[in-house]
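Handout, section 3.2

Students often ask what a structure token actually looks like in practice. Rather than define it abstractly, here is a full record for DUF2029 domain-containing protein. The first block is the sequence as you would receive it.
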Amino acid sequence: MSIVFIKTILSMALLLLAGAVLWKRAFFLKIFAGKNVPIALTVGWVLFRLVPFIAVYLLAGFAPTSDVFGFWDEGSKASMGQVVYRDFWSPYSPLYAYYLGLWLKFWYDPRMIVLAMTVMDALALWVSWHLYRAKLSDSNFLFKALLYYLLPGSLVLCVVGAQEDVWMWLFVIVAFLFRQRTGRVEVYAFLLALGLLLTKAILVLILVPLFIIEKEKLRFVLTMALVGAVSLAVLYPLVGWEFTQPLDEAKVLRAPNLLSVLNPWFFNKIGVGEKFWNWIGLLISVGVGSWMAWRLRSTDIPTLISRTWVVLYATMMVVQQSAYSNYIFLFLIPLVFYVVDWRDKKQVGYLLLFNILCVVEASYWWRLGMPKYLTPADIWASSSSVLDYVIQVVIVVLTGYFVWLAATKKVVSE
């Protein structure tokens, strides 16, 4: 349980620091006024990503854990020229392993994968500034960036967990920014398709709402279809139908989600693990995301993409049976910068609690043996299972709260 203990202590320390920053909000806003945003974000990356990386992996000598093992297996084999899906298994899109392999050309070590994740996180923040700069003052953006850097859901999941989910936000925002700059739907659609090829299959979920609000639908679809056809023409001769390996992830039962929470109260009679729940989860998450995008179709891009993104992917986190709490990293940026009102103590308190629970729960659940609660008696079997189940319930409830917040409440940009 050492990693659970470390994550808990680190998360609590980070929340205390975040609380101190919030307490001195006026001071930090004054400090950030007139500062060069890219330079400030770089300094933030050094202080809150590079320094922790050096402290954990170089000075303390800890070895990367968790998903890094899988990323290392993929990236190292890809760097040696092996073929994804044929020579090694991968739950990710076809170019993901090769992108990691490029980083390993500079330093052939699992720690390089962690460092790469911190750089991608920094890039996601940088492009977010370009997205939000018309809505947020530079000082307010930097204040929220500082809070983002300190939140356990970003720092711990990035530096300790080496999660890649923020990449999807990065690629979609880059595509939007190029669309704004060039006006070319073909460039926009190509970058979205490239993002899908470089990350994971769940990025396809946001493409449905984006298609619904797209005015130039034919060119959008044709570009995406062309990229898909070329990809299939390359992959199929090499690996056959093995390129569908990422779809197997939907069969993996994880927690917390609505099914894991409800299952014991129905005495395992709701068909947990069955494929029809995957389709129901997809329909719900894509449905609410599409509804949100259509509802906001006449608003500005930052509002449209931020609120749609949070509604879609936060919903997915609790309705998809293969989702787990680390997915907070997928929608944390728009949640922090554009949904939560940092002057509202209730919203802030819920967000801080949400962060620490999401960071700790995945490791705790996994080290308990990934329990599946079949009856209420399974919950009360031990104090450990009671704690795990209570954490699951709170995460599901808080996720629902933030979906509701993004969908219905007025967004406070300043």
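Discussion prompt for tutorial groups: Residues 2-408 form one domain. How would you have guessed this from the sequence alone?
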